[in-house]
Design goal:
single chain, Cytochrome Bc1 Complex, Chain D, domain 2, Cyt_c-like_dom, Cytochrome c domain-containing protein, heme, metal ion binding, metal-binding
Length: about 150
């Protein structure tokens, strides 16, 4: 019961922070909170770093295999399917690395976007998710999200 209360409090805090930063979100159409559709259904334009560390390369391969179907190539999001992960909402100070681990393990109820709930991701280890996070963080840094 206590875990549920803590989780609810964290979600409420995250929603409040998101609401306060709503107007600061780049590349986002205000109609659906995240759907200025670009080529291939991408929601945001993502600059890719010139090179990646070994962990980021491993994360990129895992991301492409597990996450890209929904979250798009290079974490650009897919219109009508899933949000971009290269977005201020997912900056490290708002969604820490363990938030990604928990999202993959447990799924997430829709709270920032109108894409519906994210189901738990089958057959992905915590180590896999942390490699994916390293890749996403590299993309975020390249795009000014620290």
């Amino acid at each position: 019961m206590r875990r549920g209360a803590i989780f609810f409090a964290l979600v409420a805090l995250a929603a409040a922070v998101w609401y306060l930063t709503l107007s600061a979100s780049p590349n986002v159409d205000t109609q659906k909170r995240g759907t200025a559709t670009l080529a291939d259904g991408a929601i945001v334009t993502v600059q890719v770093p010139a090179s990646f560390s070994n962990q980021e390369e491993i994360g990129q391969r895992a991301y492409d295999a597990v996450c890209a179907t929904c979250h798009g190539k290079n974490a650009q999001g897919r219109d009508g399917i899933a949000p971009p992960l290269v977005h201020r909402i997912y900056e490290p100070g708002h969604h820490g690395d363990m938030a990604f681990v928990l999202a993959a393990k447990n799924g997430v109820r829709a709270h920032h976007w109108k894409f519906g709930n994210m189901p738990a991701v089958e057959n992905v280890s915590q180590a896999d998710v942390l490699n994916i996070v390293a890749y996403v963080r590299a993309l975020q840094r390249e795009n000014g999200i620290n």
